[in-house]
Design a protein that fits this description.
Blueprint: H1 2-18, H2 22-26, H3 40-60, H4 65-87, H5 91-115, H6 117-122, H7 124-143
Transmembrane segments: 35-56, 68-86, 92-113, 120-143
Family: Belongs to the TspO/BZRP family.
Organism: Neorhizobium galegae bv. orientalis str. HAMBI 540
Length: 144
């Protein structure tokens, strides 16, 4: 499990460090509910730990093929969002990535509900945060 957690946290940290918001992001109009920038790193660190636990749980489950595919899809979309939004400085492209990301997370929760309820529940905070991030991303698109 530790290996899965370390891998998830490391990939998330690498993606975040490679795609810093910078001045461009600071110049955007943002909604009143935009959180302070310091909150993102600790929230994502906790979420990546949970994601690592879920990957470990799912990896060792029987009949895990469909759930591993859904996990891989959400992981790829998760890692694409920062380069799309920050790297390419495109809130629209970020929205194009984050909506299917949220859908894939919800599909993973649904697919895991019977097979591994613990994994399903551990993905709920992730789904809630990505739902919030989707609303934030959409708001930035509409305000700019």
């Amino acid at each position: 499990m530790i290996l899965f957690i370390v891998a998830c946290v490391a990939l998330g940290a690498l993606s975040g460090a490679s795609n810093q918001p910078g001045e461009w992001y600071q110049s955007l109009n943002k909604p009143f509910f935009n959180p302070p920038s310091w909150i993102f790193a600790p929230v994502w660190t906790v979420l990546y730990v949970l994601i690592g636990v879920v990957l470990s749980e799912t990896w060792y489950d029987e009949n895990n093929g469909r759930r591993l595919v859904l996990f891989a899809i959400q992981a790829a979309l998760n890692l694409l969002w920062s380069p799309a939004f920050f790297g390419l400085q495109s809130p629209v492209l970020g929205l194009v990535v984050i909506v299917p990301l949220l859908i894939s997370i919800l599909l993973f929760i649904g697919a895991s509900w019977r097979e591994n309820r613990k994994s399903a529940w551990l993905f709920v905070p992730y789904a809630l945060w990505v739902a919030f991030a989707t609303l934030l991303n959409l708001s930035i698109v509409l305000m700019n």
